[in-house]
Amino acid sequence: MNNLKLLGLTAGVSSLMLAGSATADFTGVSWTMSSSSYGDTYLIYADLDSGGQLNAVYGDDINALTISSDGGFYQTPSWSVDTTFALNPSLIAVFPSLAYDSWVTIGLEDNVGNNMLNIGIDFTDFNSGGSLWTDNGSWFATPDDAQVHEVNGSVLIGQFTVASGDHVFGSLNMQGKNADLSNWNADGIAFDTAPAPGALALLGLAGIATRRRRK
After folding, report:
1. How many domains does the chain have?
2. How many angstroms separate the CA atoms of 52 and 179, rounded?
3. In terms of residue numbers, what domain contains 63?
4. In 3-state terms, what secondary structure has residue 72?
5. By the number of CB atoms within 10 A of the CB, which of 86, 137, 202, 215 ranks highest?
6. pLDDT in tens, 114-160
C-alpha cells in the first residue's frame, strides 16, 4: 500500500487544502492507494484533530461538491453500491469485485453498524462510472453515531477505484464537531491524488539515490 501521508512529511501533498476555508479540528484531506487487477483504489479521508467528528459531506449552491477522475470510476456491473449503507460484506464472497467498488461513506467500509444517510444526491452518473456532483445534497451521520468519530486522526469518506495511473480529484464541503463539541465547517476544499510537482521531483531524486547506492 502506498500511503501519501509519507510524502506529506516532505512535500505537503497528503493533507491537501488547495483552496477554500476550514476551521478548528479539521486539518485536511488525505488518502491511501492500493493496486489490483481492477486498477488503483483510493481511500479518501477527512483528517481531524484528536476527539473530532465528521458529521456530513455536502454540496450547496455556493460550493458544489464534485468528485471526478481522469477516466471514470470502477463500479461492479449489475450490483454497484453508491454508499456503504448498502454494502453487505457477505456479498463480497459472491461478488468479489464489490471489494473494489466506488462508494461514499462516513467512517465505515460496509453496512455493519452503519447509520449513515444521504439526501438530495443523484447517484445515477456515479453508479455508471461517472463523476459525483451535487449542489443540494449530503451524506451524513449524527453525533450519536460512533462512526463519525476520528480513528487515528481521520474519518473515511469514500473509496474510489480508477484505471491504473489515473487520479481522483474534486472539491468537498464538510462539517463536524470539535473535541469540545463546538461545530466546525470546511468549505470548498480541493483535493487531487496526483502527486504535486515537488513530490514528483523528490521521488525522482529518491530513485536516483537508490540507483547510486546499488552501483
Report:
1. 1
2. 5
3. 2-214
4. coil
5. 137
6. 999 999 999 999 999 999 999 999 999 999 999 999 999 999 999 99
